[in-house]
């Protein structure tokens, strides 16, 4: 039970708080770039807690991914807020610990049960924070309720279920590298759905991120 609450804090409660602090205080590009250090942290923690070797190719993949994300989302006007940067980095560290320890402490239960207990514990931790820091909810409309249901079911439950299911099957460093695809997806959707232009730097970022994910997969392939 104690491990469940530790994982819930790392993967959900503390991570979400830091994520939203960074989102409010930083431009999205800065927050994404700082958060992109997570795979490198996972590599180091996997060595400490799982005894995994640190491979040069894996480290190189992480560095290439960080630079690629920066090319994708950073703008010349991006401002650095110290509190926001610290929050983004703390969130990356928290999720990195949660990723590695979730693999180390994987219990003999289904991924659904593992996810459900963490979500429940993480939600309980967030209740007093929400009551203390957040204003009361306004009257909810049917649209609001549908939005909350979508965020709860797809943005949290299904997403984390797939995440923990993947962690049980592949190396944490490989799983963490897939996070580089999030800004790639967002940028692609902006191009396809909103007609946003892609700069040469963003195209280079695409290539670098995809190369990073491929290198990370290749570094863990059986010899």
Condensed summary:
This protein has 223 residues and is mostly helical. The chain has ten helices and no strands. The protein has helices at residues 2-25, 28-35, 38-50, 56-73, 82-104, 111-133, 142-167, 172-177, 181-194, 200-219.
Tell me what the structure shows.
The chain is an all-alpha fold. It is 78% helix and 0% strand. The protein is globular and about 45 Å long.
Task: Using brief descriptors, characterize the structure shown.
globular; mainly alpha; 223 residues
The rounded Rg comes to: 18 Å
Low-confidence stretches: none
Oligomeric organization of the protein chains? single chain
Q: What structural class do you assign from the helix and strand content?
A: mainly alpha
Question: Helix and strand layout, with pairings?
Answer:
Layout: H1 2-25, H2 28-35, H3 38-50, H4 56-73, H5 82-104, H6 111-133, H7 142-167, H8 172-177, H9 181-194, H10 200-219
Helix pairs in contact: 1-5, 1-6, 2-4, 2-5, 3-5, 4-10, 6-7
């Amino acid at each position: 039970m104690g491990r469940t609450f530790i994982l819930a804090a790392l993967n959900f409660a503390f991570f979400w708080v830091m994520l939203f602090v960074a989102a409010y205080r930083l431009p999205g590009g800065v927050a994404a770039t700082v958060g992109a250090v997570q795979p490198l942290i996972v590599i180091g923690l996997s060595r400490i807690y799982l005894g995994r070797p640190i491979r040069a190719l894996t480290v190189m993949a992480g560095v290439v991914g960080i630079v690629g994300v920066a090319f994708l989302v950073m703008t010349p006007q991006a401002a650095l807020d110290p509190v926001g940067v610290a929050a983004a980095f703390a969130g990356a560290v928290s999720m990195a610990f949660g990723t590695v320890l979730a693999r180390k402490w994987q219990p003999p239960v289904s991924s659904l049960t593992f996810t459900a207990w963490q979500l429940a514990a993480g939600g309980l931790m967030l209740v007093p924070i929400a009551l203390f820091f957040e204003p009361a909810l306004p009257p909810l409309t049917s649209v609001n309720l549908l939005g909350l249901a979508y965020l709860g079911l797809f943005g949290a439950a299904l997403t984390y279920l797939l995440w923990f299911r993947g962690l049980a099957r592949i190396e944490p460093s490989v799983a963490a590298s897939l996070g580089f695809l999030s800004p790639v997806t967002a940028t692609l959707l902006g191009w396809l759905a909103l007609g946003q232009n892609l700069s040469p730097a963003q195209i280079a970022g695409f290539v670098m991120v995809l190369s990073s994910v491929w290198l990370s997969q290749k570094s863990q392939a059986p010899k």
